[in-house]
Amino acid sequence: MRPLLSIQYLRALAALAVAVFHAFQWARLDFDIGAAGVDIFFVISGFIMWRTTEGTGVRPLEFLRRRAVRIAPLYWVVTLGLVAAALLFPPRFPDVQPTWSHVLQSLAFIQHRNPAGQPFPILAPGWTLNYEAIFYLIFAVALLIPQPRRLLVLTCGLLALGLGGFFYPPAYEMLANPLILEFLAGVLLAKVLTTDFRPGRGAGWLMLAAAIAWYAAMAVIQSEWDLWRPLFWGMPALLIVAGLTAVEAEGGLPRIPVLLALGDASYSLYLTHPLVIGAVAVLLGTWRPWLFIPLSLVLACGIGWLVWRLFEKPVTRALKGPLIDAASRGHSRP
């Protein structure tokens, strides 16, 4: 299926927003709204999973194998690299405590509390991948259901898990979190766009403007939303994905090579940027934000692209080959 420029651009901008958020954190400056890039990623994930599987007859195990090939190799390599660095230079990584249990559960995308009692894996951004993993599992189960009832089953499953965080708030740290509803928002958006409904280019621009204004208001208010994050950050994420896809559907978007390249490398950027920014902070210091922030972001984007070009892209392509062959053999059986 032809990749959408709008989705590639949003992947790039979401990953960059999270990187800016962390760079500002190191400099002790405020850009908390940058963390909303995660919410955009979740909406995109739901959108893409429905768009690429509807009407294809993909089987649950094949779906899960594809997702594992896409997200696991790079995550494992970066996680194990961080473990090795923490074991070799413990003073440089005081927050990383690589116990066997912590490492294995991190690699397996199992939500757990680290030795400090926080719900984070070895590689901190991996907490979002734990949500992705549970979404993939629920989605794979839904693939067992005939197409006419699949959306209903998927909706009920995600609602049950997401609303659990409202009824028992401590559970939101253990995946029973309303954040999971952002995947559902992306799924429903993809489903709507398979119908004859078309918002139109003007409506798309209005949704984009509303999303930007919403984010600006949230940045000014600077409040802790906790359980209400899917509403206050998730809704503008849905608007921005719906808006840009609508603009692209009605007249297209210009090709912006830098954003396309960054969109391709968004996963590598997302996983590696904390290490790059942290290294720049240690080597350069953060007391000159005007130098530290742009330099760390440029390096994070450059190294993220190199990791995608030299590792993520060839490894994913190599692993997809056997995967496609296995799927072909499976389909050829009587």
Describe, in plain words, how this protein is organized in 3D.
The chain has 334 residues and is an all-alpha fold. 72% of the residues lie in helices and 0% in strands. It has helices spanning 5-26, 37-53, 60-88, 100-107, 126-142, 147-167, 181-193, 201-221, 229-232, 234-249, 257-264, 266-284, 289-332. α8 runs antiparallel to α10 and α12 runs antiparallel to α13 (289-332). The protein starts with a helix and ends with a helix.
Q: Which features would summarize this protein structure in a list?
A:
single chain, mainly alpha, 13 helices, disordered C terminus
In total, the number of strands is 0
Distance between the termini: 27 Å
Strand content: under 5%
Count of discrete alpha- or pi-helical segments spanning 4 or more residues? 13
**Please, what is the average pLDDT?**
91
Low-confidence stretches: 325-334
- Give the helix level as a range of percent: over 70%
Summarize the main sheet: none
Reading the helices and strands in chain order gives: HHHHHHHHHHHHH
Structural class, from secondary structure content? mainly alpha
Summarize the structure.
By secondary structure, the protein is an all-alpha fold.
List the helices and strands and how they pair.
Blueprint: H1 5-26, H2 37-53, H3 60-88, H4 100-107, H5 126-142, H6 147-167, H7 181-193, H8 201-221, H9 229-232, H10 234-249, H11 257-264, H12 266-284, H13 289-332
Helix pairs in contact: 1-2, 1-10, 1-11, 1-12, 1-13, 2-5, 2-7, 2-10, 3-5, 3-12, 3-13, 5-6, 6-7, 7-10, 8-10, 12-13
